[in-house]
Design a protein that fits this description.
Layout: H1 3-8, H2 10-15, E1 23-26, E2 30-34, E3 44-48, H3 60-81, E4 85-91, E5 99-105, H4 110-124, H5 126-132, H6 134-145
Antiparallel strand pairs: 1-2, 2-3, 3-5, 4-5
Length: 148
């Protein structure tokens, strides 16, 4: 991470009080705020207080706080907006500061259609069928577990 990346980061500016943000919940390591380009009412982002582009580079305490806050925020979104489910995914590419999307989703809405397209892609693309084969799955599992 470069100091310039952090200096230009909109999330760091919100956390420093230098830019507006709609903060809805927070804990010692993370903050939940409304996405300013929501895909649905209640669409939130959960960000770590520390500027880290990728969630897997956070400390164990930061991960615990981040995902604990994501869960608490998702439970509140469920109680208030009553969606069918809440889609969640983590990013850090366009804005290089980890952010977890929490998107309230109902059947047939735009976000639901996006998730359906991804699932359809997963099930239909020929090159992916190769990685689904039992021998390929077993080899991937061995690699990820560190087995020889």
């Amino acid at each position: 991470m470069h100091d310039q990346d952090q200096h230009d980061c909109v999330f760091c500016k919100i956390l420093a009080g230098e830019a507006p943000g709609y903060i809805v919940r927070e804990n010692e390591t993370a903050v939940a705020l409304l996405d300013i380009n929501p895909l649905a009412s209640g669409h939130c982002l959960v960000i770590p207080r520390r500027h880290v582009p990728w969630w897997y580079d956070l400390t164990p305490d930061e991960i615990s706080g981040l995902f604990r806050l994501a869960q608490e925020t998702a439970q509140r979104i469920m109680a208030v907006f009553e969606p069918d489910f809440i889609g969640m995914f983590a990013r850090g590419r366009r804005i290089p500061h980890t952010h977890i999307f929490l998107i309230p989703t109902n059947k047939g809405e735009a976000a639901d259609r996006v998730f359906n397209v991804l699932e359809g892609f997963q099930e239909a693309v020929a090159p992916l069928s190769r990685v689904r084969q039992p021998d390929a799955m077993a080899e991937t599992m061995r690699k990820l577990k560190g087995d020889r």
